[in-house]
Give the backbone structure.
Amino acid sequence: MNTLITRRCLALGLLMLHATTALAQRPEVSGTNAQEDAGWSGYLQLLAGGSRSDGAAVYADDNAQIASLSAPTREHDADFLLPLWQLRYRLPGNGITLFAGMPEQGIIENEATVEVGARYALANDASVWLAYGPGLSLYRKQVWKDPFLTGEKRAHTDTETQALRLGADYILGSPVSVTYAMGDISVKDEQSGQSLSGRLSSADIDDLRRSGTLSQTRISLTLPMTARVFIIPELIHTQRQTDGEAHRYHSPEARLALAYLADPWEVYVHGYVGKDNYRHEHPVFGTKREDTRTGFTAGVSYSEPLGWRDLQANVVVGNAVVDSTIPFYDATVQVVTMGLTWRY
């Protein structure tokens, strides 16, 4: 398998593993209290896995050349080995926790950004928090400079994301949590559409620019069904404003997660459906784009394998599908990951 990481597939693995970690750390699920002791805590996680993807627009090392914008695509395999981490320090006596590391629910879910922030613990497991991602990343998410180039190899370029997130968890002791995020996304060497300059106007090429801003609102509930079963529904709305009109969209999304805890086992199932509604006609394809996104994640975790204290082993599988009104943007991703987590 390709040892150069397919970024989109790797990032889906990160999202899935973070989703299970986020569930496990919720006070109602884990049984911990927001009023934890002062001092250091966190986790270090080693993630290994493999992925398979297809789609003409998908960035993959062996997907650099496409015959045409409508040609059938082939599958691309990748494997990866990656460390994940988060470090927290609880200040004595004032309920403030400082943290740094990879967010469990970043504003851009296919980029392993690093952020720093602070959380203030309130009564009844409630808390408020603020986090900033300055554009640092464990790896740079890469995209094609000109996705529409055909007949020769496409070159890639980096993207960079800076984001500010703020949230309130378990508001007034209720199961409701709310997060708002806003970010700036830049494509380093934007060349979208330049290979089609013979049939596109300069205004059309400007409409294909992908840099811009993004805002997102999340509302979730953590509902205990029994002492061991928890259900977490979530609604997400994303708004993206890009320099080019062709990539501006708003996106509603619904998610549902189910957690079953029977120490030392934890079982998670997570599914979602979302729709990206683009506002303007795409100058390359002459139609307005709409993407329907669906996916699921299933994971199993086992605490203290072989008697090793503070360790947790987990296996996660998942599938994601993008069904677009423009077939060029259709995509599928399957991921299998295995991880070993040390909590301290």
